[in-house]
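Write out the 3D structure for:
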Amino acid sequence: MSTAICLVSGGMDSCVTAAIARSQGLDLAFLHVAYGQLTEKRELRAFHEIADYYDVTERLCIDGGYLREIGGSALTDRSIGVPEGEVDRPGIPLTYVPFRNANLLAIATSWAEVIGGSYLYVGAVEEDSSGYPDCRKSFFAAFNEVVRLGTKLETSIEVVTPLIRMSKRDIVLCGIELQAPLDLTWSCYQAGELACGRCDSCLLRLRGFEQAGVNDPIAYKTRLGS
C-alpha cells in the first residue's frame, strides 16, 4: 500500500485533506512544522489529536523556527498585528509567511525519500483562501517538477492538493461526508483557548460553515462571520 505524507497544521483544511487520503486507501504519515506562529502550541495539540483519531503512528514534528527568525509575517513577527474583521482586502495579507509552503514541501520531500512515501498531501486552497501566492495550483505543479528533478531517479513522489479548487463551504461538506474530526481542528491565527472569531482564518472558516448550513463545532470568543 502506498504512503501519503499529509502536511497537517492542525487546521480544518489539512484535516479534511488527510481524511481524503485515508478514503483513498492510502497509509498515512503525518508531518507538522512549528515555525514560531502565534498559535504554535495549540496547533501542535490539534495535530496530535487528529493523528490519534486516525491512528497514525508515523509522525514527524519539525522545528521550523528559522521562519520566525526571517519574519515578515503577522504570524511570526510580534511587531506586526494580525488583521481582523475583513477577509476581502486586496493584495497579499500580512499573515502570509514568505515562501512557507516551499519550505514545508522541501521537508516533506526529504522525509518521503527516507520512508518511501509516494504522495505529499497538502490542504492548500486557491479559490477561497487568503490570497497567498504559494497556495496556487501553478505553484504546486511547478514544485512537482522540482521534486522530479531534485530526487533520486528511482524516487516517485507526487504533491497532491485535493482541496485546491474548493471553497470553504465545499471543504466543510466534504469533511462531514468523510467523518473528519472537525471538532479537533484549530484555525485561529492568534488565540489558543477560544478562537478569536475576528482574524481572517476564523472568518473564512465561519463563513464556510454558515454557507454549508452547519454549526462550527469549536468555541469562539466572538462570531463576526456568522
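Helices lie at 12-23, 40-53, 66-70, 100-115, 137-150, 168-177, 200-212.
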